[in-house]
């Protein structure tokens, strides 16, 4: 929600643990990326975040992180062209000032060349002049290296963010760019011959890095590691095709294999996943918590540091100084330290009605019954009575809930105190589960009703722009997914999804095809264009949480 295209996801990484590993300790620690800020196009403040303030770094420090990856876009700050490519002195100074804010708080830091990879350094564009890319890379890094050459060894450099490359030839060029980068910072002097660097493969993609990356010339004395990025599985991370679940054995095996591939190719090289995320905005909560836990532990298993990407919308509310999902945040920090976390169960495939132990859902107007939720305690024990978070009111075990193995049953008599005949829809309470170690979990008690639409169809507008379908949220304040079916029964997008499990078929993709606001659901312009191209009336089924039969409404666009 409120995203600035997929770019924003890439533009806001928090930096979890990456590069202290590269530097000295070779331990997995916790870092955070300050995204959508100095990397914004065209400049700081252009995207969803105001300019950097030092207090944000205090918040990150107090939350247990050890480093910050500071992405910086330089494209719009050159004051001369070829051959000098002079960088605006004010911009270089601003970058130095922000780095000083970071280093003075005892963080490690990584600074890079960020969305330049979308403009002058995109090797996949037919008109890209590779000689010019090489020239610019040298000149830019020489200036950055000169400006920052005397910073402490806690500052590391990263060649370039996610430089596009699709062929072995591009892979070779990127290896050359890593060399040019090393040459430039070494020529710039200062401490740079000893500075830690993270080198990159095409797209900072794990697979492509294993295919094409070559080690730098031994004449460079810089301690180096490889940085790669991880946003997988695509459907879960980006809410495509109704994938509101994660955590099957197959899901876990795939993540493990992705980390193993890179590690097994580079057994003696420090590895940093410089970006990863599963956003609070658009992933199902229990699935997200288990993903955080599993990713952090798998990274540790393969001796790989991780940096979480935050675009200012996903995780840290920089203005409020609060984590939007404090449980996920805590799971991450504990998992990195190797402390077991108890985790909530949830459905792991799309074939049935979905259950999530991060919630107690009660349908307004229905009778209240006992609710049993399953957990994976992972050796932990509940160490206190469950409490209502806001009031700190303690529940009584036996009377209000019972514990059996790793299942907790909330008694209808207790639930009737939350879900009264007059209580509103929406979140009514959070219940806190405290364990003898690891993260305290919360269960969000939500009363819901299926929202109704005032209008259930409209004529496709003559020109395509985003279309708001107004509705009043009555439970979670976001949809689960949207299905789009043409009058002839075929899907508006991705006909192949007919082979997916029932709850994924014909579902379309968040951000590019659908979105939402406080006022309702948004069909994106691209979706309207697809209806026009399809030439048939198209029915959109907007599905809500919990995903169960009937908790959906239909809206038809008539051509
Ligand atoms: C490519 O860039 C180099 C270096 O800036 C320049 O000398 C050359 O003329 C450029 N080639 C073309 C075709 O523009
Ligand atoms: C290294 O990467 C290549 C290319 O992806 C792959 O084919 C190979 O199996 C990997 N090697 C190991 C030991 O994992
Ligand atoms: C982790 O990797 C670093 C080098 O990157 C190495 O020094 C260290 O021994 C590794 N630790 C383990 C447990 O393999
Ligand atoms: C709901 O509770 C009332 C009163 O106990 C009972 O008469 C009714 O049958 C219940 N409805 C359902 C669907 O269980
Ligand atoms: C419960 O927690 C969620 C997530 O932090 C929050 O959005 C919601 O407002 C909370 N509910 C109450 C009643 O405080
Ligand atoms: C929405 O449309 C689908 C497919 O035509 C239908 O099965 C479902 O009953 C409709 N749902 C509602 C709430 O009208």
How would you describe what is shown here?
- Keywords: Carbohydrate metabolism, Cell wall biogenesis/degradation, Cellulose degradation, Glycosidase, Hydrolase, Polysaccharide degradation, Signal.
- By secondary structure, this protein is of the alpha/beta class.
- It folds into 3 domains: 338 residues, TIM Barrel (Alpha-Beta Barrel), CATH 3.20.20; 88 residues, Immunoglobulin-like, CATH 2.60.40; 107 residues, Immunoglobulin-like (Sandwich), CATH 2.60.40.
- The strands form 6 sheets. Strands 1-2-3-4-5-6-7-8 form an 8-stranded parallel beta barrel, surrounded by 6 helices.
- Helix 9 runs parallel beside helix 10.
- The N terminus is likely disordered.
- It binds 2-acetamido-2-deoxy-beta-D-glucopyranose (6 copies).
- One 2-acetamido-2-deoxy-beta-D-glucopyranose (NAG) binds next to loops.
Concise description?
The chain is an alpha/beta fold and 559 residues long. The chain has 13 helices and 25 strands.
Could you give the topology of this structure?
Layout: H1 5-10, H2 20-23, E1 30-34, H3 54-62, E2 67-70, H4 89-103, E3 108-112, H5 130-148, E4 155-158, H6 168-188, E5 197-205, H7 206-212, E6 224-230, H8 234-237, H9 249-265, E7 271-276, H10 285-301, E8 304-310, E9 316-317, E10 322-323, H11 326-336, E11 343-344, E12 359-363, E13 371-376, E14 387-388, E15 401-404, E16 407-410, H12 412-418, E17 426-433, E18 441-448, E19 457-459, E20 467-470, E21 481-486, E22 514-517, E23 520-523, H13 525-534, E24 538-543, E25 552-558
Parallel strand pairs: 1-2, 1-8, 2-3, 3-4, 4-5, 5-6, 6-7, 7-8, 12-18, 19-25
Antiparallel strand pairs: 9-10, 11-13, 13-16, 14-17, 15-16, 17-18, 20-23, 21-24, 22-23, 24-25
Helix pairs in contact: 5-6, 6-7, 7-9, 9-10, 10-11
The structure holds 2-acetamido-2-deoxy-beta-D-glucopyranose (NAG) (6 copies).
């Amino acid at each position: 929600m409120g995203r600035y295209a997929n770019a924003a996801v890439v533009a806001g990484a928090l930096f979890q643990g990456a590069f202290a590993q590269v530097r000295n300790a070779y331990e997995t620690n916790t870092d955070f990326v300050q995204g959508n800020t100095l990397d914004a196009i065209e400049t700081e403040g252009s995207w969803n975040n105001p300019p950097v303030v030092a207090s944000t770094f205090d918040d990150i420090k107090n939350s247990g992180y050890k480093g910050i990856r500071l992405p910086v876009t330089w494209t719009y700050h050159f004051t001369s062209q070829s051959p000098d490519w002079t960088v605006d002195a004010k911009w270089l100074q601003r970058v130095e000032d922000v780095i000083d804010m970071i280093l003075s708080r005892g963080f490690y830091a990584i600074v890079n060349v960020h969305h330049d990879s979308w403009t002058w350094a995109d090797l996949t564009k037919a008109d890209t002049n590779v000689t010019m890319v090489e020239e610019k890379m040298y000149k830019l890094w020489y200036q950055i290296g000169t400006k920052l050459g005397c910073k402490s060894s806690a500052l590391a450099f990263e060649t370039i963010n996610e430089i596009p490359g699709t062929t072995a030839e591009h892979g070779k060029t990127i290896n050359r760019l890593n060399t040019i980068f090393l040459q430039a910072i070494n020529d710039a002097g200062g401490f740079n011959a000893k500075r830690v660097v993270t080198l990159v493969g095409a797209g900072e993609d794990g697979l492509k890095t294993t295919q094409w990356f070559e080690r730098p010339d031994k004449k460079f004395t810089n301690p180096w590691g490889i940085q790669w990025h991880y946003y997988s599985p695509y459907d879960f991370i980006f809410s495509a095709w109704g994938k509101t679940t994660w955590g099957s054995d197959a899901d876990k095996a795939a993540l493990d294999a992705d980390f193993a591939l890179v590690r097994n190719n580079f057994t003696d090289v420090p590895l940093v996943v410089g970006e990863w995320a599963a956003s609070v905005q658009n992933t199902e909560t229990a699935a997200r918590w288990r993903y955080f836990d599993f990713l952090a532990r798998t990274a540790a298993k393969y001796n790989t540091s991780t940096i979480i990407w935050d675009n200012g919308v996903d995780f840290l509310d920089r203005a409020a100084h609060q984590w939007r999902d404090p449980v996920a945040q805590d799971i991450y920090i504990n998992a990195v330290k190797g402390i077991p976390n108890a985790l909530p169960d949830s459905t792991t495939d799309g074939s049935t009605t979905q259950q999530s132990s991060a919630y107690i859902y009660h349908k307004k107007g229905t009778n209240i019954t006992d609710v049993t939720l399953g957990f994976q305690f992972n050796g932990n024990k509940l160490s206190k009575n469950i409490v209502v978070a806001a009031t700190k009111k303690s529940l009584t075990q036996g009377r209000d809930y019972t514990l059996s193995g790793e299942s907790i049953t909330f008694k209808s008599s207790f639930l009737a105190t939350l879900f009264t005949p007059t209580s509103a829809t929406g979140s009514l309470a959070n219940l806190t589960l405290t364990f003898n170690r690891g993260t305290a979990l919360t269960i969000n008690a939500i009363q819901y009703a299926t929202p109704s639409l005032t209008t259930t169809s409209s004529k496709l507008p003559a020109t395509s722009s985003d279309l708001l379908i107004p509705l009043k949220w009555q439970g979670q304040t976001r949809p689960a997914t949207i299905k789009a079916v043409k009058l002839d029964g075929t899907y508006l997008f991705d006909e192949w999804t007919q082979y997916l499990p029932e709850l994924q078929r014909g579902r379309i993709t968040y951000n590019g095809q659908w979105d939402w606001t406080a006022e309702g659901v948004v069909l994106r312009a691209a979706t309207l264009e697809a209806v026009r191209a399809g030439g048939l009336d198209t029915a959109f089924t907007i599905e809500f949480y919990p995903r169960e039969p009937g908790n959906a409404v239909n809206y038809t666009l008539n051509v």
